Amino acid sequence: MLQKFNKMNDFINDTNDDMLIANGDFVVDVSDEQGQGHILRALPGSFKNVPDGTVGLERFLLDDDIDGMLNDIREKFKADGCPVQKISYDEETGDLAYYAKYTS
Predict the structure, then answer these.
(1) Residues with Cβ < 8 Å from 24, sequence gap 6 or more?
(2) Do 94 and 76 touch, CB atoms closer than 8 A?
(3) What's the DSSP call for residue 83?
(4) What is the pTM of this model?
(5) Quick count: other Cβ atoms within 10 Å of Cβ 92?
(6) pLDDT tens per residue, range 14-73
(7) Per-residue pLDDT tens for 49-60?
(8) What sign does the dihedral 70-71-75-76 (CA atoms) show?
(9) Rounded to an integer, what distance in angstroms lies between the CA atom of residue 40 and that of residue 92?
(10) In degrees to the nearest 10, what's the CA dihedral of 59, 64, 70, 72?
């Protein structure tokens, strides 16, 4: 069984993936979207506590297995407590769209 990422509040990163600082302190806020981004971008094995918990979208860049990518996203999000209700990928634009909300 995959270990879940810790949700709720966490340190927030800026658009460069650096720690966001405001008023001289680290910003802490709800991190659900940030966590989903980490699941999508990080290669499997990137996180010691969840070595099989990430997708690593770059692995699919030169691959024609769109269904495999979408299924991997569904599986990893579900294991993290965030079932995917809707997901689509536009092959022409490379846009990935999904709706997934964490269950408590």
Answers:
(1) none
(2) no
(3) -
(4) 0.79
(5) 5
(6) 888 888 999 999 999 888 888 899 999 999 999 999 999 999 999 988 888 999 999 999
(7) 999 999 999 998
(8) negative
(9) 20
(10) -40
